[in-house]
Amino acid sequence: MEVLTVITNRQSGTNVHEIADGIYRINTPIVIDGAGAFSFNQYLIADDEPLIFHTGPRRFFSLVREAVGSVMPVESLRYIAFSHVEADECGSLNEWLAAAPRPSRCAERLPPRCPSATWRSRAPRTADDELLLLGTHSVRWLDAPHVPHGWDAAS
User: Fold this and answer.
1) More confident residue, 88 or 22
2) Is there a contact between 9 and 67 (Cβ–Cβ < 8 Å)?
3) 55 φψ region: left (φ > 0), alpha (ψ -120 to 50), beta (else)
4) Contact between 131 and 138 (Cβ < 8 Å)
5) Which of 24, 92, 115, 145 could be cross-linked to 61 through a Cys-Cys bond (beta carbons 3.0 to 4.6 Å apart)?
6) pTM
7) Other C-beta atoms within 10 Å of 83: how many?
8) Are 37 and 29 in contact (CB under 8 A)?
9) What is the pLDDT of residue 32?
10) DSSP letters along 78-128, please?
């Protein structure tokens, strides 16, 4: 398989490349003053029931949306998943929920009364060990309260 990287935003350098059949890495590089280079990545599974893993920070929403739109209509997004609750993993979650009319958010381990649970506009739908059939691809939600950050993590 030939890997082709498509730059979707020349100003930011945001790019998309297919890393496996129907699976794309969306990458936004940044330079941190004095600390060198860094990049934010999201993964899109373009299938009958498309899924994006990690939404990216809120300030990158338009860049990531543009990149997803280069692969498929944003409105057809079905699932939004992230490994844990931090701005780089799910900072633009509510923007994605507003942009696509039908996405379900995959679960995270936040109890309903946790202050961080109040910022989301829709409740999660997956449970530990649930298999999501996306079409050709499938993903399994696994609670992983020890990796990478603690009690709120999953993979």
Assistant:
1) 22
2) yes
3) alpha
4) yes
5) 92
6) 0.81
7) 19
8) yes
9) 82
10) -EEE-SSSSHHHHTTHHHHHHHSSSPEEPP----TTSGGGGG-SS-B---T
Residues 104-150 pLDDT 10s = 666 555 444 444 444 455 555 566 777 888 999 998 877 776 655 55
Report, in angstroms and rounded to the nearest whole number, the Rg of the chain calculated over CA atoms: 15
Rounded distance, CA 16 to CA 8, Å? Answer: 7
Distance of CA 65 to the CA centre of its chain: 11
Cα–Cα dist 101/127, whole Å = 22
Burial per residue of 10-42, b for 16 or more beta-carbon CB atoms within 10 angstroms, e otherwise: eebebbbebeeebebbbbbeeeeeeeeeeebeb
Query: Are 57 and 68 a contacting pair, CB within 8 Å?
Result: no
CA 102 to each of CA 12, 19, 35, 58, 122: distance values in angstroms, whole numbers, following the listed order: 29, 26, 40, 20, 11
